[in-house]
Model the fold of this input.
Amino acid sequence: MKKFFLLVLIIILPVQMHGQNNYGLSGNTFCSEVPFELIGNLIIVKVNINGSDLNLIFDTGVKQTILLNLANKDSLHFNKLKKKLFVGVGNEKKDIEAVKTIENKIKLGKDIQADDAVVYLITNAEFTFSERMGTPIFGFIGGELIKDFIVHIDYRKKKLIFYDPLHFDYKKLRRYTKIPLSIHRDKPYLKAKIKFNKKDSLHNIYLLIDTGNSDPLWLFQHDSFRVPEGQSRIKDYFGVGLNGDIKGERVKSHLLQIPSKITFKKVFTGLPDSIYYEKLIQSHPFDGIIGGEILHRFKIYFDYKNKAMYVKKRFFEYHKKFPFNESGLYLSYQGKIPVRVKKMFTTFDTRELSSGSNDIFIDRSDFVYEYKFFDKIMVHYIRPGSPAEKAGFAVGDVILEINGESVYKYKLNDLEKRFLYKSGKNLRFLIERNGIILPLKMNTEEQL
Done:
């Protein structure tokens, strides 16, 4: 079964930003475990900031701790505010306002903490994570958290383990493959090779390792690196940045080769339009991003101080085909909706037997209806020329049923994985459009 991946990505390039957070382990602890939730290949950790618990994305693609969407967090207090600017990815080229705060207390799990931390607050973001992911998300925690530890990402057990480098037993890594890294501004990069068809030669590429991108691979085309003109490609949607939707083309790369003979075939590769990455690569040029759809196929150790990543294949995950939304229908959460649900109502009577020794319980059942609030699932984007467009979907349609099953019984990632990431399937939808209930039919088909 093809695996769902969430189309949310935010990359942030700081403009003249300073301040360094130093995290440590409390007491005499030499390692600490932090559980996480995995949503569409994105790692969600619970972080306590100034006494309030917040869900943040663990994101190796950013350096700072960045918060947004704090309207409902009145209990949070920050010190010494100073305005800064960010460059964000999206369809607008405007800068993003941010506020720098200092002297913050940050804690993860029981033992990891920073007592004088810098946190950036974004004040004019144009979307919320909660709508895209179905769970409250308030920002990112990035490379500053990783730099002083050896960090193990265990995708199967859904936990991060932070080790004190001075007490780490490197024998743990004897069955792992070492991959050299470059570290720039607390963000990790690796060298790889790629070719787009069998006859093509291998191209050298330099990639940012980004746990905050759920796609397998993005490539940035420039004068010295371009996908061959004859390569089959389609227009596609990649997600939402701080400044709006991110769009471009998608191709299927024949082979991706990472150092130490790690290879992947038929990788769905995003080619974002240049307006989304022009500023991003100015200060430190790189060719693209390797994301969670590849990373989750390994057990991983990051060792920033020695500029290395150690990986071990998760056998069944490693050999799975790469997923792709064949339908071209991209969904999102849009708040709550009242839904009328049927509920059995039961009453009991008792009757005494003639002997007087036993009671018999006779149940009388009936059905009643009540309203419950469920997540409202709407159409956010439709890929041009896709089966969804041919079926007549429109942005803003509310999805009610798929193949006779209520969508409210699924989480969004399970819903898309079950119905939309397959080809050759006949799907029947019930939607609501402007207060009118409509049936739609769609036949998914392979497009790349």
User: Anything to note?
Assistant: Helices lie at 129-133, 143-146, 292-295, 315-318, 387-391, 412-419.
